Amino acid sequence: MTLKRIKNVLKKEWELTFKSVNNTLVVTLLPLLIVGQVLGIIFAVKTFVGANSFEDITSNAMIQRSMANLQGMISSEITSLSLSDRFHLLLVSQFPYYLLLIPTMIAISLATFSIVEEKQTGTLEPLLATPVRTWELLLAKALSGAIPAIIMSWVCAVVFLIGIAFLVSKAVVEACLQSTQLISIWLISLIFLVPAISVLSFMLGVISSSKASDAKSAQNVALIIVLPVLAIVATQIIGLISFTPILLLILSFVLCLLDLAVLRLAVKLFCREAILVRWK
User: What long-range pairs does 253-260 form, CB within 8 A, spacing at least 24?
Assistant: First the structure.
């Protein structure tokens, strides 16, 4: 019965979400624009940055630290690559972390409206009057956005890989394919980290939506969703932390535990009876 109730809420949420053209574009077009931006940067670097400029870029302390981390991840053969190829390889290796922005951006756009709008339109009360449990309702609402976000993240990863196959040199592609660590990081990120971040982002969005009185304030509170993701991306890009496959697995496990903790917190904060009374 639990699975059936969650499935029914999911069906209802998807019908409401994808009836709106704006919501559909947020789920589908926004992630592709993010990937297009990254591919555009790689294309611009390849086309307009000269060899001398690469020497200046790679002399930066932050870039050198990231290059050193990449050196340990790939192999000693990276030194045989040109400066431009090494920089392209660095950009490619950072994309699994940049990919984490996709579910958080979708969550800010969609999850923050999931409950507060239903309060205002009066469609939440009939749902709360059904036998669906609070945790089932909140989990289903989070999954209704997280599942499309995960799928779009996977689609974007494929689009990115196809794009770089045409943008970077054969030597960079071969270096990526020969690195078991880099391949492992991609797989762990897509299979574990992206789903964990997606559920967490949408769960936090649902919490902000359930406690807010209007959609704008819910969206403002939900901006904190981006901060942990930006921290992960920033520490990796500037070379403060070099995420190995083991570290990513540990991070994914911690985020899964955090997902469960946030779900319990969301249930405690939801105040089902108060919502029924206050919003009648």
Answer: 255/193, 255/196, 255/197, 255/200, 256/192, 256/196, 258/196, 258/200, 259/196, 259/199, 259/200, 259/203
